[in-house]
Amino acid sequence: MAFTQEGVAMLSxxxxxxxxxxxxxxxxxxxxxxxxxxxxxxxFARKLAELEKGIAKHDKNIRTLFQAIRELMLKPEPxxxxxxxxxxxxxxxxxxxxxxxxxxxxx
Length: 107
Hints:
The protein has helices at residues 5-14, 18-73, and strands at 94-96, 104-106. By secondary structure, the protein is mostly helical. The chain has one domain. Strand 1 (94-96) and strand 2 (104-106) form a beta hairpin. It has two helices and two strands.
């Protein structure tokens, strides 16, 4: 059989022997310790949940960091050659009389 803390308190009002009083005190102390242990467990559980949330954020950030490092480690792709005819000479200077007045220069 099991008693609640209130049940133990009521039992102590019925039983008045010295041994009953000592057992009652021991049982009440056990209930107090149990309540403290549960409260402590809840605090630890809450703190653990907070840590897990923080670690999840760190994991995401670390993955992003590693991905950026891997991208930096890849060899850059060589620049593609432009399509079409490319003139590699300097443009010629032509003197004309149109548009700009006396001795205009076009390039």
